[in-house]
Write a structure and sequence with these properties.
This protein is 32% helix and 20% strand. The chain is of the alpha+beta class.
């Protein structure tokens, strides 16, 4: 049986968050421990769109979490927790619901991993002046930087050409002084 069929059966062909029965699809919960049906949620297009794009969140739509946060399905609890966390900054009812939730330690850890990933993805790689950096840009180092694990010091004004972006948006990779290294983006200025 496919994951989609398992989720349709589990959800009775309804969105597991808002109970809508139209335009359903499988949503794999980010930072999941595996890729089984237990780490996926059946969601409608409205929920998926707002989960994936924080700028489109309509707070009143998510009042449905009052019911779905009590689901026996861990993945549904995780998504509910993450959405309540996102809404809690502007909606007091969301903070109240989040405070009422009870989850085991491993579940909270799973939920927090996803929140940390979202925060990391929302951070843009920028130079010292706040200018966004892209892969392939050229930068100059704005202060002398000692290289960890060696006696090498990258001098102020050193050009780093054709940088690469890393998983951590606060860092860039590039070749400076003949050596490929990771640099802190805040110590560089776009050329």
């Amino acid at each position: 049986m496919t994951i989609e069929n398992i989720l349709k059966q589990r959800s009775e062909s309804k969105c597991e968050l808002c109970s809508s029965d139209s335009n359903l699809s499988v949503y794999e919960v980010p930072a999941s421990p595996d890729q089984t049906a237990g780490c996926c949620v059946m969601v409608c297009d409205t929920c998926r769109g707002q989960i994936e794009d924080a700028d489109t969140v309509e707070a009143n739509h998510w009042r449905c979490l009052n019911d779905s946060m009590w689901s026996q399905t861990p993945a549904v609890q995780i998504v509910s927790y993450r959405m309540l966390n996102r809404l809690a900054t502007s909606e007091s009812w969301a903070q109240d619901l989040k405070d009422m939730m009870y989850m085991e330690e491993d579940m909270v850890e799973w939920a927090e991993k996803g929140i940390a990933l979202e925060e990391l993805e929302s951070i843009q790689t920028v130079d010292v002046n706040g200018t966004p950096l892209q892969a392939g840009d050229n930068v100059t180092v704005i202060k002398d930087l000692p290289v960890k694990g060696s006696s090498l010091v990258v001098k102020q004004g050193t050009a780093v050409r054709g940088i690469r972006l890393n998983d951590n948006p606060l860092h860039i990779s590039g070749k400076a002084a003949g050596t490929t290294m990771v640099l802190i983006a805040a110590y560089c200025k776009k050329m």
